[in-house]
Specification:
It contains ten helices and ten strands. With about 260 residues, the chain is α/β, with parallel strands linked by helices.
């Protein structure tokens, strides 16, 4: 599939998804959101791809925010529909994808950009990264999951402070907050993400998908995460990956997971 605003590169079992609007610092407009959603679904359906790295083009921005020109004249109902569409078409898709998604934050991740990064299963950032949710400076709040995911990641107090003050933090502070997992140089960011992805793809993709569902369940209203874990744990026993993994352990060899 051809895209206007994103680039998809694949190498063996890893895909690198690049948001490519350099003149707009990769700001998210409706077309880019739709393309990203379609790309993620396509990659998840591709049994060869076992891990996805999401980043922005160049060295300045992961995503500098949403494209305000598209919605600054919206009314209340249009605003609600905008948020719902964003959740359904992209942000919740990424968060619930059963293929692991690593966010490679290579510069500014602001507003919708930070919300997109937080939708990834975990994040690394370059040392020049700047992260924040400045929506209140525009008279609005984060609408693509930012109020919820930021609090889950950094705690209620820090989320309140960051959102209320529109505070922008650097990579080291983001690391201290638990917002990102690791800081690298700009030059090393993608290679470091690929090294982690290579470790992921050696393991059972079926078990990893189960782990993602179980972890996410603990952050879902009305769902008991422990019950979800028990269910997913039990399902693993019926997979070919479980048979291969346990047999390989007993036979003292490396497992060759079929992904079933």
């Amino acid at each position: 599939m051809n895209y206007n605003n994103i680039i998809v590169e694949t190498e063996e079992n890893i895909a690198v998804l690049i948001i490519n609007r350099p003149n707009q610092l990769s700001a998210l407009n409706s077309e880019t959101i739709a393309e990203l959603g379609a790309a993620f679904k396509s990659l998840e359906a591709n049994n060869i791809i076992k891990a996805i790295i999401l980043t922005g083009s160049g060295t300045k921005a992961f995503v500098a925010g949403a494209d305000i020109k598209e919605f600054y004249q919206f009314d209340v109902e249009e605003g609600k529909k905008l948020a719902v569409k964003g959740h359904q078409s992209l942000f919740d898709v990424v968060a619930n994808l059963t293929t692991p998604v690593i966010g490679a934050v290579n510069g500014f991740a602001l507003g919708g950009g930070l919300e997109l990064a937080m939708s990834c299963h975990f994040r690394l950032a370059s040392d020049n990264a700047k992260l924040g949710l400045p929506e209140v400076t525009l008279g609005v709040i984060p609408g693509y999951g930012g109020t919820q995911r930021l609090a889950q990641l950094v705690g209620k107090g820090r989320a309140m402070e960051m959102i209320m003050t529109a505070k922008m933090i650097g990579a080291q502070e983001a690391l201290n907050y638990g917002l990102i997992n690791q800081v690298t140089t700009q030059e090393e960011l993608l290679d470091t993400c690929k090294k982690i992805a290579l470790k992921i793809v050696k393991n059972s993709s079926v078990a990893i998908a189960s782990a993602i569902r179980a972890i996410n369940a603990g952050y879902t209203d009305g769902v008991n995460g422990f019950d979800a874990e028990i269910e997913e744990f039990g399902k693993c026993f019926g997979t070919d990956d479980f048979k291969e993994g346990t047999t390989a352990f007993i036979e003292k060899r490396k497992a060759d997971f079929p992904g079933k």
